[in-house]
Design brief:
Blueprint (H helix, E strand, L loop, with lengths): L11 H25 L12 H7 L5 E2 L5 E2 L8 H13 L5 H8 L3 H13 L2
Antiparallel strand pairs: 1-2
Helix pairs in contact: 3-4, 3-5
The structure holds heme C.
InterPro entries: Cyt_c-like_dom, Cyt_c-like_dom_sf, Cytochrome_c_Oxidase_Subunit
GO molecular function: electron transfer activity; heme binding; metal ion binding
Protein name: Cytochrome c553
Length: 121
């Protein structure tokens, strides 16, 4: 033993071990938090009301502020829908109406609507 356990003795290897253990714990906690969010398509029923106005129209066109094609999202994979909505939130995707809509969605909302649309054919 190079170092007896006393207040004047700094046991670096032991401190490092504690730090590594703490970091590992924090990592596990993060993963648990992300895994807690499970998309529930039933819960999405009242959340997609506002999406249907644009994404539910046959022909998928919106006319304001100009006529543009609204992409079909029903039947896309949940992962794709989630990452698209996150990209609008972060501003990586620029469409103003979708940015506004995504900004109002919580992580749970995103998981729910993604599960809902992924289930559609
Ligand atoms: C005002 C009309 C409008 C509403 C309301 C709307 N969207 Fe959109 N959405 C669009 C348009 C237009 C695009 C294409 C934007 C672009 O080019 O980036 C789009 C794109 C998307 C995309 C990406 C699709 C792809 O293939 O890349 C997703 C996912 C999406 N919307 C989900 C939703 C959800 C979920 C809601 C409801 C919470 C919603 N949208 C409400 C008009 C709308």
């Amino acid at each position: 033993m190079a170092c007896a356990p006393s207040p004047f003795c700094i046991n670096y290897p032991a401190i490092m071990k504690k730090l590594i253990a703490l970091a590992a714990l924090a990592g596990i906690a993060n993963m648990a938090a992300a895994a807690d969010i499970v998309g529930n398509p039933e819960a999405a029923n009242n959340k997609v009301a506002m999406c249907i106005g644009c994404h539910g129209i046959p022909g998928y066109k919106a006319t304001f502020p100009e006529v543009y094609q609204v992409p079909m999202i029903g039947g896309q994979s949940a992962k794709y829908i989630e990452s698209a909505l996150r990209a609008y939130q972060k501003g990586e995707r620029k469409h103003p109406s979708m940015r506004g809509i995504a900004a109002g969605l919580s992580d749970q909302d995103i998981a729910d609507v993604a599960a809902y649309y992924a289930r559609q054919k």
